[in-house]
Amino acid sequence: MRDKAGLSRDQLVEALQGRGYVNVTFRPVTDWRSRDLLPPFDLDGARLGRAHGRARSQWSRGDLITEQSIWIIELLNLFGDYTHV
Asked: CA-CA distance, 79 to 8, in Å (whole number)?
C-alpha cells in the first residue's frame, strides 16, 4: 500500500478506509491540512517534465500521519466539531 518514499493523501485515505473508517474521503484530509491538524507535506513531488505536472507530494512519516488522522476522526466523532480537536 505504501511505497518507501512516503505516504500520499491517496494512500492515507486508503489506509484509513482499510482500518474501518470507510466514510473518509479526500475532502476531510484536505480540510485537516488547511486547519493545521495535519502537518504540511515534507516530501515534495518531483517534476515530471514539461506539460506533465508533478508527482504527488507525501509525508515521510506515514505511520505517524495515519495515527494522527485516526485521533482526529475519533475526536471529531466524540466532540462533533473542531473546537476541541
From this structure: 27
Nearby residues of 7 by Cβ (< 8 Å), 6 or more positions away: 15, 58, 59, 61, 62, 65, 66
How far is it, in rounded angstroms, from Cα 5 to Cα 29?
20
> Counting beta carbons within 10 angstroms of the beta carbon of residue 48, is it exposed (0 to 12), middle (13 to 18) or buried (19 or more)?
exposed
pLDDT in tens, 21-43: 999 999 999 999 999 999 999 88
- Between vectors from CA 54 to CA 5 and to CA 45, what angle results, nearest 5°? 30
> Is the Cβ–Cβ distance between 59 and 41 less than 8 Å?
yes
* 6-19: pLDDT as tens digits: 899 999 999 999 99
